[in-house]
Amino acid sequence: MKHNKLLKVFCAGMTSALMLTSLTACSDKKEETTTKATTAEETTSEETKEETTAEGETTAEGETSAESETTAEETTEATTEETTAAASAFTLPETFTFDGKFDVKIVGYEYWDTADKYDYDLVNVYYDFTCKNDDVQKIAQVYWKATQNGEELKEDPSSNSTFSDMDHNDDIWLFFQNGVTYRSVVQFACVKGSKDPITVSVGDSNDNMQSFDIEPTWEMPDIRHEDFELAKIDKPAFGPGNLPEGTKADGRFDIKINGVTGIFTGTDLDRDSKIVEHKVVGISFTVTNHTGREDSPFMIAMNNCYVFQDGVTLKHVGSGKGSEDEGKTQQDLPLYQKIADGETVTYTAYFKLRSDSPIEVVFKESFKLDTFADMVYDVNAQ
Predict the structure, then answer these.
(1) Please, which pLDDT band fits residue 89 given cuts at 50, 70 and 90?
(2) Is the pLDDT of residue 69 over 70?
(3) Alpha helix (H) residue ranges in the chain
(4) Cα separation of 62 and 153, whole Å?
(5) Which end of the chain has a smaller Cβ tally under 10 Å, C or N?
(6) pTM for the full model?
(7) DSSP category for residue 163
(8) How far is residue 97's CA from residue 130's CA, in Å, rounded to a whole number?
(9) Measuring CA to CA, which residue among 157, 168, 169, 155 is closest to residue 200?
(10) Pick from 159, 118, 144, 158: which is nearest to 198 by CA?
């Protein structure tokens, strides 16, 4: 850039020198023709003016040309720098839309050299899933496929927290309300040590896939769960609310939502295999068996139970510390207990909270919006 500015000054100086020489020559010429007729003097004067004007225009044009060249060169250099930066930037494909079902937006990739731990390396594909279905929808309805050098890659080969703190095996059990966006991950085992491109396909069925390429050599961001915040829903209203009890349409059971029994403490392992605590909510239910035989009515009822927080169902977990069922697993609780037809059992189920937003406990018919029990609770009031 300094070279361009020096060139500009040099050009302007040379032009000015030429102008000064011309003006001096014109002055000498005027003195030599002093004794001539007035008409000749006027002619000489006019010629001198024309020469002076022409030289003045030449100087202006020279300066303008030098400035234009400098500006053009500066713009070219700036554009080149921007182009280079854009070429090396981490880019992502567009959002993939599957009408009336869901959108999938790819937000990042993460390549892992697993060293001696596995005989394959790993690629995590992080994405934002947005439900577009009027009814609830599972993230498991998203189909994934990946190939490298023409070979299909195995999906979800490991749930080891070292390589991702988002476990797709947990997420596939979640249900989402219409309009809710949630971040998840799909993981593929790729060829050990290979940096060849990977073609990833996503769809709503094996017959309706859209594809994009990723390269393990790209600089991939370290994307974790904390980089994404689920939009809060302060006033959940999936169902009508204030409907504490009801009966399934086919009459197989009656259900009553007794209320929240408390907020307790649960534990998990994070990405670095460290124990982290989280909050667990206990919810009491009473269910009556109407199947016509000895059965596990609560197990049946749970197929119609959705505990939403911020539009996404909560994960059903074991009892938390401080609860009356502390230390018991789900198998130790009445979840699978069989009772005779017409008998009733009360059971406390525990769910892992993800925020301090209100929860909505919903019992609805499968694949329908028909709700037969629905209650909203403020977890902060417990």
Answers:
(1) very low
(2) no
(3) 2-32, 38-88, 168-171, 297-301
(4) 65
(5) N
(6) 0.71
(7) S
(8) 9
(9) 155
(10) 144
